[in-house]
Write a sequence for this structure.
């Protein structure tokens, strides 16, 4: 089903408060991003409307990472009872990037409203032909590019056949121009006949030169491009695979840090309850130790979130912005 456009009122409101040259778009899964039509710069963060205003650092803003909303205030300044992690229910995770459910936000056609674009469906993974395994959006794009490799091979074969035809035609014309039939004719007819045979030889030379041009200026560059394309695709494949693996590892680190923080908070809460039941210097010392561990776990989680945000931004730039 083709994505729906956002309502004119919504689009005017979103773009009306942006700096000149910036446009607001929505991914098919409801993730809003911004594109500078002058520089083709793309960012998840809303551009500042005041010139010269620096962007807020990631650690100081509210971060929404894979459904986990974490305040940018340093963890050691927060009361452990108020620190919580909230996971949005039903948000799909694609390529280790979580997007809001498409039903909660209106969608609009990306880039060119009147044309289809692979970018509109880039993030959405799809089932294979058997309907069992899921194929990633990047794999779909990669297979499409690899089909270009086969097309280049077929084009080169087509040009090679054309070269053979031109060479064979030139050879036959040259052979015909040297035929001795009617060579004894004299007078004006003899001159006209000689001119005809000369024109055949000239035409044979033209076709021979044309076949040579096809070989040097079409076939050879095409084969060279095909060879370089193979190397570039292999390099790009490894690069993007590394980015995806890196993003997935950052996401796993956030999950691990979140669970560790939850455990530290439970431990701190349990020791606090023990202190309320029985006052003891030993219990107070354990509470201080548990509070330090909880603070450290919170700091680790914030660090993992910042690293994940950087990896997600890198992934988006490499996979979408540079392929538009």
């Amino acid at each position: 089903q083709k994505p729906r456009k956002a309502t004119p009122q919504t689009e005017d409101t979103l773009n009306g408060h942006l700096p000149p040259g910036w446009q607001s778009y929505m991914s098919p899964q409801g993730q809003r991003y911004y594109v500078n039509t002058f520089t083709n710069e793309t960012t998840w963060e809303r551009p500042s409307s005041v010139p010269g205003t620096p962007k807020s650092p990631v650690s100081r803003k509210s971060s929404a990472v894979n459904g986990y909303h974490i305040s940018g205030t340093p963890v050691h300044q927060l009361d452990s009872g108020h620190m919580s992690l909230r996971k949005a229910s039903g948000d799909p995770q694609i390529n280790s990037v979580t997007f809001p459910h498409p039903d909660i936000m209106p969608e609009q056609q990306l880039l060119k409203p009147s044309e289809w674009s692979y970018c509109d469906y880039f993030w959405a993974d799809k089932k294979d032909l058997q309907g069992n395994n899921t194929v990633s959006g990047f794999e779909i794009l990669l297979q499409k590019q690899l089909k270009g490799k086969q097309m280049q091979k077929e084009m080169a074969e087509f040009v090679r056949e054309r070269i053979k035809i031109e060479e064979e035609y030139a050879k036959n014309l040259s052979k015909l121009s040297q035929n001795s039939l009617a060579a004894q004719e004299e007078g004006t007819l003899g001159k006209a006949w000689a001119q005809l045979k000369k024109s055949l030889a000239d035409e044979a030379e033209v076709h021979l030169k044309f076949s040579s041009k096809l070989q040097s200026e079409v076939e050879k560059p095409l084969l060279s491009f095909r060879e370089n394309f193979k190397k570039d695709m292999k390099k790009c494949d490894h690069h993007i695979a590394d980015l995806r693996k890196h993003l997935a590892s950052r996401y796993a680190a956030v999950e691990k840090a979140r669970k560790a923080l939850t455990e530290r908070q439970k431990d701190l809460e349990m020791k606090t309850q023990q202190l309320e039941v029985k006052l003891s210097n030993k219990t107070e010392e354990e509470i201080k130790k548990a509070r330090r561990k909880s603070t450290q776990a919170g700091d680790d989680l914030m660090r993992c979130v910042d690293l994940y945000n950087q990896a997600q931004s890198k992934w988006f730039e490499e996979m979408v912005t540079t392929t538009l």
